Amino acid sequence: TAESLLVPEVVKRLHTRHPALIVSVMTGPSAYLLSQLRVGELDLVVGRMTDSPQIQGLTFEHLYHESMTLVVRNDHPLLAAPLKRESLEQFPLVLPLAGTTIRKFADSLFVQCGIQMPRQRLETLSLTLSRRY
């Protein structure tokens, strides 16, 4: 992700060129960050963007590509046999918050693959919480 890979490298390079520079990083949903950008509270936003009205009137550059990955623990029952789409419906999932860009992408993948969204799920943007669930 941008937060774990791209931003740390950019900050290192900035500090190499400008040793006294103070960099403040704010995280949050794209809609909030873009609203802060529009009112001048942020200088730039790095993250997932969509073709939504939120980015109209702003200049942006595509920096990286991401893939969506299904992750399970080593002893998870889904690993016992070749994965079938309907098998995913039987287990709780951890998903990004509804309404976020990444969640819209995930929802779209579920529809494209004909997978029903499991009723039992945890919706969060917290990587720490996701790993502990």
From TrEMBL:
GO terms for cellular component: cytosol. Residues 2-128 form the LysR substrate-binding domain. Transmembrane segments: none annotated. It holds the Pfam family LysR_substrate. SUPFAM superfamilies: Periplasmic binding protein-like II. InterPro entries: HTH-type_LysR_regulators, LysR_subst-bd. One of its GO terms (biological process) is regulation of DNA-templated transcription. PANTHER family: HTH-TYPE TRANSCRIPTIONAL REGULATOR YBHD (PTHR30419), NITROGEN ASSIMILATION TRANSCRIPTIONAL ACTIVATOR-RELATED (PTHR30419:SF8). This is Pca operon transcriptional activator PcaQ.
